[in-house]
Amino acid sequence: MAIFLIPLTVVLIAFSVRIIQQYQTGVVFQLGKYSRTLQPGLNFIIPILEEARVVDMRVLTNDIPKQQAITKDNVPVSINGVVYFQVVEAQTAVIKVQNYLYAVSQYAQAALRDVVGGMTFDDLLAERQKIGDEIEAIIQKQSENWGLKVSAIKILDVDVPEELKKMMARQASAEREKRATITKAEGDKLAAVNLAEAAKTMAQSPGAMQLRTLQTIDGLGPTPSNTVVLAVPIDILESVRALTAKLTDKQPAQS
Q1: What is the CATH T-level fold of the domain 60-165, as seen in this structure?
Q2: pTM of this prediction?
Q3: CATH 3.30.479.30 domain span(s) along the chain
Q4: Beta strands of 134-203 (E only): which ranges?
Q5: DSSP assignment of 51-107, as one string?
Q6: Which of 42, 89, 196, 230 sits most deeply, having the most CB atoms within 10 A of its CB?
Q7: 26, pLDDT greater than 80
């Protein structure tokens, strides 16, 4: 008799021992009814009469599959994301929802379509964090009843039709050309102002133009291939012309 009792005892002990990891919680049902919660470490249950379900209490990651949605201004988009959540009440998560992973995924998809439908396309591209926050608030309100806590929701990709992508590319190109034209116009204006100031300074200084000419010639360097054409100032030409006229008037009188 003792020979049969020893193996039976070993089997009963094996079925009654439950080792719960630090990141887990065990939910015990006795004859189908919730009994207690097992904490991390070595635990025992009554074989046959009790059943233990182990729940992971770490932060879980669940993908939000790509969803087709239409924005407030009737632009079709495809958008996906990821939701981070964790179980905070193991018994509630086990008892009140059949599969909390699937439930969170489906609820997140519905919330994503609702939030995108209430935003314009420009806001959708610029306010990804706002979208995630609104979806998180919607899911959190419901997940509290399931013993869950939503940590964060992130939007990953936003896809638009090819035609719209081409239009956006043309718009961006036009915007860059506009900024380049404005920048060039401002540079031309500033250069014109500086040239006007320089001309004014040279006009007020008699030798400024000659000094500038000498600086330009010095900057050309000694390269033989350079051809330099010097423009004679108008005042020098006028002086030469007056001297020539005076000499011409004196020649008949001497003869």
Answers
A1: Tetrahydropterin Synthase; Chain A (3.30.479)
A2: 0.60
A3: 60-165
A4: 148-159
A5: EEEEEE-S-EEEEEEEEEEE-TTS-EEEEEEEEEEEES-HHHHHHH-S-HHHHHHHH
A6: 89
A7: yes
